[in-house]
Design goal:
Layout: E1 35-41, H1 60-67, E2 69-72, E3 75-76, H2 82-91, H3 95-98, H4 116-122, E4 126-132, E5 144-148, E6 158-161, E7 164-167, H5 172-187, E8 194-199, H6 236-240, H7 267-270, H8 278-281, H9 285-305, H10 309-344, E9 351-357, H11 376-379, E10 383-386, E11 395-397, E12 401-402, H12 406-413, H13 428-431, E13 442-447, E14 459-464, E15 467-472, E16 478-483, H14 501-517
Parallel strand pairs: 1-8, 1-9, 2-11, 3-12, 4-5, 4-8
Antiparallel strand pairs: 2-10, 6-7, 9-10, 13-14, 14-15, 15-16
Helix pairs in contact: 5-10
Length: about 525
């Protein structure tokens, strides 16, 4: 039987706010300038925030941001990878335009190009960057900065400052939050508006919890996702990845089963040089003692069980979920600490507080951890905002938004012009409760990092409100088409099936339009 798919797309014009923007408070010259606090985490899945999904964990402080402001229900990234997402944030441009397409060794972000912090600084704002930078180069146009080298460490992390490298004792999420609070209290000029970026290492691999949270979730058993045992039929690139919980999640580095009888090719990332280096090795004596008290009984139980096959994969999933959620708990606590400080200092009502992740993450869907693919779990990213006085919108915002929109939004909030070459648009109309009729109806995505870790092939695509079309290229040439309404888990590739010809043609036309609009030279491969 041939199924005919509805394919007509609403007009997908990009809302043209750059030319008509009027700033946040230009109508009231006596109003205090608005501050911006942007909190970014790494690899935080929407599924593990209770304001989005209540299955796994309660996150009261993140929920507070959403309850006192807005929750974006269709928030996406344009390249699901840490460094590129950060470059998009700073420039308001897709990866091919800002020049930072992947995390490969030696990649450097060009800080001399136009950035949001540069424009804010020129407009009278103080700018500060604290935490994970992950762009290779030295931060530019920040009045204050202190950053983690590369991925950073969970315990006793090093930081790079303008004066050199320093090491701080403690747990990284606590440290970054405390440094942000210290900047608010002692290091800023309190006569000027500010934009503070608080960038956490959490919840990046290898999901090392604070010692105070190690016992959490150990009594919970999590249901396997419905597509955990996905066989990737009809999805060639999905079958070639190396991010499987079953096959690719390591026992020591990822799951902390440190023992001489356990093999792990990433062992030296966890511990080396007589227990002094590695994510575990750099702990101090007290931290290691607490860590060992928790994990040693689990290691002994694991060795005794001698699990194999599906039983081992299911065990890995439980350990992964527990470790990941413990890190989320600490992150949520620290978000609460920062919100309390803003309230104490009388800043909450005059500050836009934004919480986002650099991308989404797989919590066992398709049998995976990590991100990268254009599939929903990694292309989606949490985005919640606590709004300052004067912005009365509350609840959910359903429009399609993307991380190219953050920089224009911050400039618009500050009452500053949005450069015409920024590819995103301001979200302020949505925050005011407006529903622009010409808001975008489709999103563009392009992932570049291959060959590389996890073996996710290069691909680009278009996502509309209902459909998604993806083209995998370079060493393979494969198209995928999904009806997100009928197949939200993206298990059934419709590309080439009878009855989808018109839909495919329409989506390819829209894909080409977006590639032309964003000036991506890859468009020559569409045919």
């Amino acid at each position: 039987m041939v199924t005919t798919y509805s394919y007509l797309l609403p007009l997908a014009g990009l809302v043209t706010l750059q030319s008509c923007h009027s700033g946040a408070r230009k109508s009231n010259k006596d109003a205090k300038p608005l501050n911006i606090v942007y909190i970014m985490t790494d690899d935080h899945a929407q599924q593990t925030m209770s304001c989005y999904d209540k299955r796994y964990i309660h996150t009261p402080n993140l929920d507070r941001i959403a309850a006192e402001g807005v929750r974006f229900t269709n928030s996406f990234v344009c390249n699901s990878l840490s460094g590129p997402s950060r470059a998009v944030l700073l420039t308001g441009k897709h990866s091919h335009k800002n020049g930072y397409t992947d995390n490969t060794e030696g990649a450097l972000f060009n800080g001399e190009q136009q950035t949001v912090q540069q424009l804010l600084q020129a407009g009278g704002y103080q700018t500060a960057m604290i935490g994970k930078w992950h762009l290779g180069s030295t931060p530019t146009h920040f009045d204050y900065w202190t950053i983690l080298p590369g991925q950073g460490d969970y315990y006793n992390p090093d930081f790079i400052t303008p004066e050199g490298k320093i090491r701080r004792e403690g747990y990284v999420t606590d440290i970054i939050t405390d440094m942000g609070i210290d900047w608010l209290r002692t290091k800023r000029d309190k006569t000027k508006p500010f934009c503070l970026f608080v960038h956490h290492k959490a919840i990046h691999r290898n999901w090392m919890a604070d010692t105070s949270d190690l016992a959490l979730f150990e009594d919970k058993t999590f249901d396997l996702p419905a597509n955990f045992w996905d066989d990737y039929e009809g999805r060639i690139a999905a079958g070639k990845q190396e991010m499987s919980i079953d096959k690719d999640m390591t026992l020591i580095y990822d799951l902390k089963m440190l023992d001489n009888q356990v093999e792990d090719h990433y062992r030296t990332l966890y511990v080396r040089k007589n227990d002094t280096l590695g994510t575990y090795g750099r702990m101090n004596t007290a931290q290691k003692a607490a860590w060992n008290r928790h994990y040693q009984p689990i290691i002994e139980q694991f060795k005794k069980a001698k699990l194999k096959g599906k039983k081992l994969a299911a065990w890995k999933y439980q350990r992964y979920m527990r470790d990941y959620l413990k890190v989320v708990k600490s992150l949520d606590d620290n978000v609460g600490k920062l919100l309390d400080e803003l309230e104490k200092e009388g800043l909450l009502e005059n500050t836009l507080v934004v919480y986002a992740s650099d991308q989404g993450f797989y919590m066992g869907e398709h049998g995976w951890f990590d991100k990268r693919f254009m599939y929903e779990e990694s292309m989606r990213t949490p985005l919640i905002m606590r709004l300052p006085e004067g912005f009365n919108r509350r609840g959910d915002i359903p429009q399609l938004v993307q991380n190219i929109d953050y920089a224009p939004t911050f400039l618009d909030l500050a009452g500053l012009p949005i450069p015409d070459d920024m590819q995103g648009v301001s979200l302020l109309p949505l925050l005011r409760g407006e529903n622009p009729a010409d808001w975008r109806k489709s999103l563009y995505y392009h992932y570049y990092e291959y060959p590389a870790e996890h073996a996710v092939r290069r691909h680009y695509g278009v996502r509309t409100e209902r459909y998604k079309l993806i083209h995998f290229y370079q060493d393979i040439d494969s198209w995928e088409l999904f009806d997100l309404q009928e197949d939200p888990m993206e298990m059934h590739n419709l590309y080439g099936r009878p009855g989808t010809e018109d839909l495919t043609r329409e989506l390819k036309t829209e894909l080409g339009r977006l590639q032309l609009q964003y000036d991506d030279p890859i468009r020559s491969l569409n045919n």
